[in-house]
């Protein structure tokens, strides 16, 4: 897959335990497994565990990427806002002797914890293996290239996916372009506007087997 990998919310949701915990926020996907190990047993993990595998964008300012803040009614000072409780690396609302920033960057700014991006447009497509007369349905990200989709197909359905030519409506697809860039229209918004199920029509990609076998 491309180095700038995209994930669907369903993929993020699979990582929902302290031994394998991801969250998404502001379009990013972050692996907090190491954070869970480091702060095992801490109350500061409770909000993160409660939202394991889910989106926590509501904790952050979408413009600055910083923690959301509010004006404290008692002090009149601007303080971090924790709607679900203070979490790991979040500063306390008042000066505290046990508060230290020796952890370095907070997890939401640590690029080493990022694993990719959350797709803004997830869609289901139909992949038809012409030789085998087999039809599979696959959830993909609109930002992905056909190569990326091919790798998803390979991981889920067909280990020889790299040995296929991909076509749509009789045209060979450019493997380095997205579906939209290949001229495959997204009709889901139109269906939504007229109250039709979004999956009433799924784009169909046809795969034609080549002679050269690839290794599993």
Please describe what this structure looks like.
It is found in: Cytoplasm, Cytoskeleton, Cilium axoneme. This is Cytochrome b5 domain-containing protein 1. Residues 4-70 form the Cytochrome b5 heme-binding domain. The protein is an alpha+beta fold. The chain has 2 domains: 6-118, Flavocytochrome B2, Chain A, domain 1 (Roll), CATH 3.10.120; 122-209, Phosphatidylinositol 3-kinase Catalytic Subunit, Chain A, domain 1 (Ubiquitin-like (UB roll), Roll). Helices cover 15% and strands 25% of the residues. The chain contains 5 helices and 12 strands. The chain has helices at residues 9-13, 33-38, 46-50, 146-156, 188-193; strands spanning 6-7, 16-17, 20-25, 28-31, 69-71, 78-80, 114-118, 122-129, 134-141, 164-168, 171-172, 204-209. A 5-stranded mixed β-sheet has the order 1-7-4-3-2. It has a 5-stranded mixed β-sheet with strand order 9-8-12-10-11, covered by helices on one side. The protein starts with 5 loop residues before the first strand and ends in a 7-residue tail after the last strand. The model has no long low-confidence stretch (mean pLDDT 90).
